Structure formats: C-alpha cells, structure tokens
Amino acid sequence: ICCVIFIVVILGYIALGVVAWVHGDPRKVIYPTDSYGQFCGQKNTLNKNKTILFYFNILKCASPVVLINLQCPTTQLCVSKCPDRFATYIDVQASYRYRPDQWNYFRQFCKPGFNNPRKSVAQVLRDEDCPSMIIPSRPFLKRCFPDFSTKNGVLTVANQTTFKDGRGKTRNVTDLREAANGINNVLDARSVGMKIFEDYAISWYWILIGLFIAMMLSLLFLVLLRFTAGVLFWIFIFGVIGIIGYGIWHCYWEYDHLKGIPGSDLTVYDIGFQTDFKVYLQLRQTWLAFMIILCGVEVIIILMLIFLRSRIRIAIALLKEGSRAIGYIMSTLFYPIVTFLLIAICISYWAVTAVFLATSGEPVYKVMANQTLCKYANLTCDPETFNTTNVTKLCPGAQCTFAFYGGESLYHKYIFIFQLANAFVFLWLVNFAIALGQCTLAGAFASYYWAYRKPADIPLWPLFSSFGRAIRYHTGSLAFGALILAIVQLIRVILEYLDHKLKGTQNSFTRFLLCCLKCCFWCLEKFLKFINRNAYIMIAIYGKNFCTSAKEAFFLLMRNVVRVAVLDKVTDFLLFLGKILVAGGVGVLAFFFFTQRIPVFAQEVPMLNYYWVPLLTVIVGSYLVAHGFFSVYAMCVDTLFLCFCEDLERNDGSTAKPYFMSASLHRILGKKKLSPKKA
C-alpha cells in the first residue's frame, strides 16, 4: 500500500512541477519589473535599453528583501542609469525656465512621456508622474539603491548626512538605512565573490587532483584497517591513559609546589567569582580538585577496559571483518555516488519547482488614487480598458498600475500549501534515497556474512542483486520509513521558522516552549534515524515489512546493548581518526602546494587572489570524500554486527546449526569449535 501511495505522490509531485513550470516565470526573480508589469531590459519593448529599476520613494520600502522578492508600495520605473545627485521636484520645477538642463535630467526619472513642468506640484505628486526627490544611487541587482558610505564613522550619501524629501522636510540619511539595510556589505561581497570565482576557474583541476588523492588515501586506510584496527585502538587508549596519568602527576606537582606560598591555602569560596581564571590556578584547592577528577576518570577507563575487554575484542574483530568484506565487494565503495546523484536530482527538482511556484501568477493591476476621495482605490483593474471606464471620471488622477504577481484562481490561492507540499515531498524523496542506499549496502554485506564458505559462496554480483531486491520487493517499506522521518523533519523546519519569526518576542514562556520542542524533535529524529538504519538491515536480511523489521532490530539491539555501545564508540573513533588523517594530510599537502612551498611544483602553482579558497575546498572536499567511503564501512560494520547477533541467537555451532561467523570471531567467543565446512 505504501509503495502505491509513494508512486502516486511522485506522480503528483511531477504534476505539481509541470503546473508550476507552466504558470511560473523565473525572470520575475532575476529581472526587476516596473509598475506596468514589464521587465526592465526586455527586448522588443520600450524598456529594451532601460535595465535598472528606479523607486520613486525608496523610503516606503521596508528592506532589500521586500525590494527584491516582493513589490515595494511605490511607483517603479525602468531607467537606463541611476541618479547621481540630490534633487527635488519642487526645486527643479521652480527653475526649469532658466535651468532647462536640470529639468531634462530630472524628467528621465518621471513616467515615460511626461513633460509638463507647469503642472502643479500637488497634482504631480498625487498622480505620481515624477518622484518627489532623487538621491545619488548605484545599481545593485539591477535596482537603484542609495550610494551609502561611511565618513569618520558617520553614515553619509554623497558625503551628505541630510537631504530634502521633496515634501517640505529635511531628513537624515539614516532614514534610508532600513530601506537599504546591509546593501554595502553585500556590494563588497560581490567583488569578493568575483575573485573567488576567478580562483576556482584557474585552480579547479588542482582541486580535483587533491580530491583524487583523498579518495586513494581513504581506500588505503580502509584496506589497512584489516591489519591495524586493533593496534590503532589500543595505541589511542594507552595514550589517553598515559596523558591522564601525566595530568595527575602534574596536578600533584602544582599542589605540592604551592605549599607554603601565602594565599595559596584560600578556598574558591573565599575569593568568589573572578573573571581572570589565572587567579584560581594560584590555589592549592584548584589543583587538588583537578587531581581528584583526573583520578576518577583514570579509574573509570581502566575498569571499563577490564570489564569490557571481551566486547572490545569483538568490536575490533568486527571492524577487521568489515574491511575484509569490503575487500571482497569493492563495488560497494562507489555506491555513495549513486546516492549523491539521486539526492542531487531531488535538490535540483525541489529548487526549480520552488522558484517557479514563487514566480507563478499573472500581473495584477490596481487603482492608485486618493484613498479618501476614491471608492475604487486599491481595487483590481485592467490597464487596457481602464481609460474607457468611469473610474477616471469619478476619481481624477487615478491610474491603473502594476501591483504584484498573483491571481484569484484556486491555484494562486494555495501557492503556500504547494510550497509546503514541495518541501515535504523533497524531504521524503531524500530520505528514501538514503534508505535505498542503506538497504542496498546492507543486503550486499549480509550476503557476505551468511555465505558459509567465504568467498566461494558469495553471490556473483552482490551489490546489484541487493539493489534489485530493494527496488522490487522493499520500495514500500523503505518509503514508509522515509515518510516517518520526513514528517519529523518537516515539523523541525516549521519549528525553526517559528523560532526565527518569534526571535524578537519578549514572551519567555514561548521561547522556552519552542526550545523544548526543538530539542525533543531533534532527539526524536536522531532516534528514528538509528531505528530506521537497523530496520533497513533487517529488511535486507529477511525481507519482512518495516514495522516488523524495526521491532526485531530494536529488541535484538537491546539484548546486546553493551556490545552496541562498545562497537559504536570504537567504530566512531576509528572512522573519525581516518577522516581527520585523510582531510588533514591532503590539507597540509594542499597548503604547501598553493603557498609555493614545494620547489618541484612552484612553477605550476596558479596565481590566486585568495589561496585559502582552493585550500578550504580541498580540505572540506577531502573530508566529504572520506565520509562517503567510511559511511559504507560503517554500514558494513553495523550489518555484520546484526548478522553476528542473529547468528549467536539462532545457531549453536553444532553440525545441525553451524555458525556462519568467520573463524576469527569464533575464536574470540571461545565457545564450541566450528563444525567442519562441507566441501
């Protein structure tokens, strides 16, 4: 049933994308739109050479977000260039007879065709034929924004701190701050972004070489784990014990050294709270407390090693077995590429659909007139027939101007619902792609474990066979697990949105409740990911449905909870060590290369604006490459562990019920001898 529902949802998602593509127009995001619904710079229109949008009264615009994404409640006009001076319509009109050059300059920011300086100022401003003022501006995202600068720590526009608003008031340029908040920072970021793009353009092949080296190092590390897992773990453990032992000795030395020094016998309570931490280091009590804490940690680690030594040996043996399994099924190392491509397709489809949904709708025109005198104000209108209606007679000066993109149809009313559905199905598909990968890998590694004679009994193409089984038989189970996770993730997204919206509220209880809910759903998501992962392994082994598999996996893990904890920590440590070694090693090599410290390759290093751009890309990329390979290894170990627990519960090592585990695992258990394997 869930498989059928999942397929129907995918078909519906495709239909939603098609509808969005039919109604949407991304040019509405990329190109600005004037008050007549025409794109600035659009070919075959009067705006062909006018590529920049000018706002009559930018003070009415709340923020750049409103200016770029929505519509600012003022007349918007396409112009060829932004104004470069302060001027008001009142001053220009008063001097147009003896200063015609000022009028000719100002009227290019008026509505097309307007050239009547004799019209009264009140009527011009009422009809919005011209702006009441212009201010020095510069284009940003093809829109005119005030040309802000800072002079001696004071915000200015063209070195002025005040300006006339054209309505009889002198205002401070800080009044423009809200309408253009953050514009200067973004403008500076544009130049930095161009330099970064140039660095990528001339160093991309060296970055690829670095990532290839990271891939080879990751493969080498996984191969070496078969022989070095135990050595690496015990070196780390004894290193920690040694470091803590040195810490205990140092604390005792400091404690003894401070003996007899005036003031060292004071207590922390006596000196109270101090912002300078060094004050506490002059007290014997501080070093005594440190020594007691370190002694406690040392004792706990040693006791854990004593009582958990057999389980640690099993964990290390499973890690070695995982390396051996990957050695037999090398194709599994490259399966993350399939998962990456599936997720990339999901992200691309979601992003494109979201943009088309956001830009859906036809131009909506509304009557702009005096609110108190015209009953038709703010009502929708048709610009082609507006001049033939009675509105112009009843409301002198009223105009039919572009307001926003939208519509009154059912589709346009539910755009927000469609965006939510787009986000939800996106989360569902991404989680399904991850689930498919986990189930496929689990099936491949399970076929290795349950092969009685390794590697003779391993299927010919274990990865492809497992992928085929997952698609053919387990799509519904995987979709159901992904659905549960997607619901929780959508709730978390909504909570984050509410938290962002309510960040400025003074209601402490609301903030506390949101914080608790976010924490609870974060924990729930982590728990579900753990359950789903092990459920997919059981699905791959036995082919049962999701709920049954999740229940069996959970109780199987609970019966082996200590082994689970030990294996998880040992695996996490070794894989984290591997990621750090790969990313750090390649990062150091990249640093010496891009800073021209390798004489052999000094002439090959490209000239860069910022050497840290390819360096950080190589380091982060190497970490992600290592994470991709090691995620396969982690899945292998988890699968082998569940198979190992099942093997112990279902079999007893007798001829009738022989163990399927390897000889090394069986030796660690120290139970019965392995029954002779039949030839």
Automatic annotation (TrEMBL):
It catalyses: choline(out) + n H(+)(in) = choline(in) + n H(+)(out). Pfam families: Choline_transpo. GO terms for molecular function: antiporter activity. One of its GO terms (cellular component) is plasma membrane. InterPro entries: Choline_transptr-like. Keywords: Antiport, Cell membrane, Glycoprotein, Membrane, Transmembrane, Transmembrane helix, Transport. The chain crosses the membrane at residues 204-224, 231-249, 287-308, 328-352, 425-452, 473-495, 573-594, 615-635. It comes from the Eukaryota. Its main location: membrane. It is found in: Cell membrane. It is a multi-pass membrane protein. The keyword Cell membrane applies. PANTHER family: CHOLINE TRANSPORTER-LIKE (SLC FAMILY 44), CHOLINE TRANSPORTER-LIKE PROTEIN 5. Belongs to the CTL (choline transporter-like) family. This is Choline transporter-like protein. It comes from Falcunculus frontatus.
